[in-house]
Amino acid sequence: MQRVINFSGGKTSAYMTIKYYKPGDLVIFCDTGREHFKTYKFINDFEAFENIPVIRLSYDGGFRRLLEKTKAIPNRFKRFCTIELKVKTARRYLRSIGLMKYENLVGFRFDEPLRIQRRKQHWKQVIDIFPLNEDRITKSDINNFWKNKLYTLELEPILGNCTLCFNKGKNNIITILSKYPDLANEWIKDETLNMKGNTYFNGITIKELLEISKLPKKQYDLFELLPAYDCACTA
Q1: Whose C-alpha in 98, 118, 163, 199 is 20 to 30 A from the C-alpha of 174?
Q2: Where are the beta strands (DSSP E) in the chain?
Q3: CA gap 206, 192 in Å, rounded
Q4: 219 and 138 in one domain?
């Protein structure tokens, strides 16, 4: 059966791809357009060093077009961004090339059992496989692997996937913006458009979080931050 490897642009999915890739596998990266520029550099380096081609897909019109079409802002309770920008975008492409049934390799590790339990099976023809879990691969295994590579993802883990994703939590967003204030620009623009008054966080805007990030406070190491909530996006 045809195999599809979900490649998110992070260390874990890159490790999974390197370890389990077989000629003929389709390696797919669904680009939300809100990834950190170092993520894109890592993907370029991955292709160059590993000689594994990555199919890069994106939603027609990008992240902003999705918001304009839905006239809404996603949040923790309405996570249509992941479904539309990643799950359905990949599915549309695979159907366009005549692929209806396939094995879907997902990079959830052995130390992430809840992510596997909460994984929703969207289509009966798509069979999810979790090779890292089956082989008991943990985060420490991933980190040790990349210590010995000639390239790596030069990015704090909290900045993986969409830079200011609401699943990272308000406090983490404030900390991120204290170091990278320019990341707020696109997200503020999202909320200033007429999206029925929706915001990424209930009761507060990204612009307000940016202002809070400028206040004197204890500084946290971004490498130590963990997302506040789980997401279907792999890292």
Answers
A1: 118
A2: 3-6, 26-31, 55-58, 102-105, 126-129
A3: 10
A4: no
Distance CA 228, CA 23 (A): 37
Quick: pLDDT tens for 60-106.
999 999 999 999 999 998 999 999 999 999 999 999 999 999 999 99
Whole-prediction pTM: 0.88
| Exposure of 51 in the CB half-sphere (CA atoms within 13 A) | 2
Domain membership flag for residue 152:
no
Last-in-domain residue among 103, 120, 147: 147
Distance in angstroms (rounded) separating the CA atoms of residues 28 and 91: 11
Burial code of 37-74, b = ≥16 C-beta within 10 A, e = fewer? eebeebbebbeeebebebbebbbeeebeebbeebeebb
* 109 in the same domain as 11: yes
Q: To which residue do tokens 């696109």 refer? A: 186
Neighbours of 230 (CB within 10 A): 11
Closest by CA to 58, choosing from 100, 88, 79, 36, is 88
The torsion angles phi and psi of 124, rounded to 5 degrees, stand at: -65, -30
> At 197, which amino acid appears?
G
**Structural domains of the chain, count:** 2
Taking every pair of Cα atoms in the chain, the longest distance, rounded to a whole number of angstroms, is 56
pLDDT for the residue numbered 218: 61
* Neighbour tally for 223: CB within 10 Å: 10
Instruction: Tell whether 120 and 182 lie within a shared domain.
Output: no
The range of the structural domain enclosing residue 63 comes to: 3-147
